[in-house]
Write a structure and sequence with these properties.
about 200 residues; alpha+beta; 7-stranded mixed β-sheet; 3-stranded antiparallel β-sheet; 3 helices; about 20% helix; about 20% strand; globular
């Protein structure tokens, strides 16, 4: 069973509720950055057919909690319910791809000596686009998450190092660790110069 850090959980809930006020759908996260609530179907054998094929996954239609990003909500009562069911949560995730913002996250990693910021600047020069001023969240490892808003009629998928080494994209079905979250590796916080900004259009 996870250790409960009530102060971290209280702060995470407060930050999650603040994000929801800005129209961002949230879920509670554990110290490992994974959704804090496990799937209610993790032990189900009902989803496996006679030929060994897996049936359609449940995205919350069963009414139970624990469907990851499919549980994400902007409703304060629902968010409190999610956090009450996960008192060990020390962070929150912000679902990407949902209205009204259609959030897209660009995760610039620094692991293994990767210079993902330079790689993004090179992509911008090569494809003639400008990296806009936008919300930037600083990660405990020294990386950065850039927040952008996408067009409502385009589904941006998740990817890892597809654009360039160390550049991951969080799109539909993904989530970003929200600023104010505490994980086993440290704290996620908004870069002070960008805290007042709204996510820039992609």
């Amino acid at each position: 069973m996870a250790t409960i850090d009530r102060q971290a959980t209280t702060l995470a809930l407060a930050h999650a509720l603040s994000a929801a006020e800005r129209g961002l759908a949230v879920i509670p996260l554990s110290r490992t950055k994974l959704p804090a609530l496990r799937s209610p179907h993790r032990d189900d054998t009902d989803l496996v057919g006679a030929a060994g094929t897996v049936g359609p996954p449940c995205h919350g239609e069963c009414g139970l909690l624990g469907h990851g990003v499919h549980d994400a909500s902007t409703d304060p009562a629902r968010i409190r319910e999610l956090f009450a069911a996960a008192p060990w949560a020390t962070g929150y995730g912000i679902a990407c791809g949902l209205p009204p913002h259609h959030l897209i996250g660009i995760d610039l990693d620094t692991k293994s000596g990767t210079d993902s910021s330079s790689a993004l600047r090179e992509l911008a020069l090569r494809h003639l686009f400008t990296i806009p001023e936008t919300v930037v969240v600083l990660t405990p490892s020294g990386g950065r998450h850039l927040w952008l808003t996408g067009p409502p009629d385009v589904v941006v998928p998740n990817s890892a190092s597809r654009l360039a080494p160390g550049i991951d994209i969080r799109g539909a079905g993904g989530y970003l660790v929200g600023p104010g979250s505490r994980t086993e590796h440290g704290f996620y916080g908004a870069a002070p110069a960008t805290a007042h900004l709204a996510p820039a259009p992609c």
